[in-house]
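hey so u asked for the seq, here:
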Amino acid sequence: MRILVVDDEPAMLKLIATYLRRHTQYEVLTTSLPKQALDIVRDNPGIDVIISDIEMPVMKGPELLQEVIRISPDIKCILISGYSVCPESTHPNIQLIRKPFGVNELLSAIKKAFPCPCEEQGPGKPAIRSITCSEQL
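ran it, structure tokens below
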């Protein structure tokens, strides 16, 4: 599975990517630029999930995800926000999680997007291993 993380805050981008690389076997791509994210999705049709911050300059997360879904209708999307009031999406491919969130919440959102086959990936290795982590992203 391939995941694209988009966040204009370099520290948050690095933190999310590090957690995903550490706790999953997924290929993780990153960018801080929404326009570049669109190029990545166009050039890499195998991206399964995009995780995007809601508030970014130039293009907001919901706008980005609308364009992403237009390019790749089956892609699953996770919006992250630090705001207590966030726009709710009625699109079945979009989930919302609020900051601060723990790594387990992020992994649960990914598992929710792909409920069946991602429990086992490869010979005896789970794609998402069970972890207990109270650390907040």
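The chain is about 35% helix and 20% strand. The helical segments are 10-23, 34-43, 61-71, 103-113.
lmk if thats what u needed
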